[in-house]
C-alpha cells in the first residue's frame, strides 16, 4: 500500500456514501472530508486507502493460474507442506466439511483457509470459530469468487472482473469484511478459479497482498475420489502448496486427506502455515 502514490479516490463505498463521484471531481482533500462525515456503518477510508488505479488500466498479456507474480511454492529445503483449503461460497459452495475440519483439529494440523465473502456470510459462526483457532490462518478468496482481471475474460465459464476498480473491490470488500469481523488484515489472496492476468496480480501486490496459488492440485475442485486426493497429496515435495477445498462435505477430500497425512508424516513431512514461510 505504501508503495502507491496517493492521488485519486476509490469510491469503494460508492453505494453507501452519497455524492462520492461528485466529490472525486472536486479533488482529494474534499473526498477525505466527505468520507469523514459518512454514516457510522461505513468503514472510514484512511488516506492510504485512496489509491490511483490508472496504472492498472492497461492491456494484460498473460491469463492463467501461473502468471507473473503468482506464488506457487514455499522457499525451503525442509520437508514442509502447506495445506490450503478454499471455501468458495455461492449456491453450490456454502457447505462445510465438518469431518475434514474435525480431523485437522484432532491431529493438530495447521492449514491456511482461503475464504470467500459469500461463504463467510453463510457460515458466520463457523467462520469466527475457525478464525479464532491458532491452527488456522485465514486468507482472502475474494468477494464474488471472480477470476481476477483488469479487463474481463473468463475461467471455467465464470466471468472475470472487468476493470481495475472491479478487481480492487473483489479483493478489498472481503478484506474489509474479515477485518470488521476479526480485526485481521489478510495479506494473501487467491481468486475464485485461481485465474488472473498479470496486471491484476500487480494491483493485488501493491495492495499489500501475496497472490498464492499451488503446485499440487489436491482435489481438482473437490471432484476427486478419496484415493485420487490421497495420490495427489503423496506427490507433494519440499515446499509444496496444496490446493484443496473445505466447502464440499460430499467430496473425497476429507477421506483423501485422512489417508495421506499419516503417510506423509511417516516420510518426515510436517505441515506449516504459509504466514511462517517465504513464498516463491
Ligand atoms: Zn473457490
TrEMBL record:
Family annotation (InterPro entries): Glyco_hydro/deAcase_b/a-brl, NODB_dom, Polysacc_deacetylase_ArnD
Annotated organism of origin: Virgibacillus tibetensis
UniProt superkingdom: Bacteria
Protein known as: Polysaccharide deacetylase family protein
Pfam family, one: Polysacc_deac_1
All residue ranges annotated as the NodB homology domain in the record: 79-272
Amino acid at each position: 500500500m505504501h508503495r502507491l502514490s496517493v492521488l485519486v479516490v476509490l469510491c469503494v463505498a460508492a453505494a453507501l456514501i452519497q455524492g462520492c463521484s461528485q466529490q472525486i471531481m472536486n479533488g482529494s482533500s474534499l473526498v477525505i472530508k466527505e468520507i469523514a462525515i459518512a454514516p457510522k456503518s461505513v468503514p472510514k477510508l484512511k488516506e492510504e486507502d485512496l489509491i490511483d488505479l490508472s496504472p492498472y488500466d492497461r492491456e494484460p498479456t498473460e491469463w492463467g493460474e501461473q502468471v507473473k507474480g503468482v506464488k506457487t511454492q514455499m522457499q525451503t529445503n525442509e520437508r514442509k507442506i502447506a495445506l490450503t483449503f478454499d471455501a468458495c461460497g455461492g449456491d453450490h459452495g456454502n457447505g462445510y466439511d465438518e469431518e475434514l475440519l474435525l480431523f485437522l483439529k484432532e491431529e493438530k494440523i495447521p492449514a491456511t483457509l482461503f475464504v470467500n465473502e459469500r461463504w463467510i456470510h453463510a457460515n458466520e459462526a463457523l467462520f469466527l470459530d475457525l478464525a479464532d483457532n491458532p491452527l488456522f490462518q485465514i486468507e482472502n478468496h475474494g468477494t464474488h469468487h471472480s477470476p481476477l482481471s483488469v479487463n474481463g475474460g473468463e475461467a471455467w465459464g465464470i466471468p472475470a472482473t472487468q476493470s481495475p476498480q472491479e478487481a480492487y473491490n473483489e479483493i478489498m470488500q472481503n478484506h474489509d469484511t474479515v477485518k470488521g469481523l476479526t480485526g485481521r488484515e489478510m495479506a494473501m489472496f487467491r481468486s475464485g478459479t485461481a485465474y488472473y492476468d498479470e496486471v491484476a496480480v500487480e494491483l493485488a501486490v501493491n495492495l499489500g497482498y501475496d497472490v498464492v496459488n499451488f503446485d499440487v492440485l489436491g482435489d481438482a475442485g473437490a471432484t476427486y475420489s478419496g484415493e485420487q486426493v490421497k495420490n495427489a497429496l503423496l506427490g507433494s515435495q519440499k515446499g509444496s502448496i496444496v490446493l484443496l477445498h473445505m466447502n464440499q462435505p460430499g467430496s473425497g477430500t476429507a477421506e483423501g486427506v485422512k489417508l495421506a497425512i499419516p503417510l506423509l508424516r511417516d516420510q518426515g513431512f510436517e505441515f506449516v502455515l504459509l504466514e511462517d514461510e517465504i513464498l516463491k
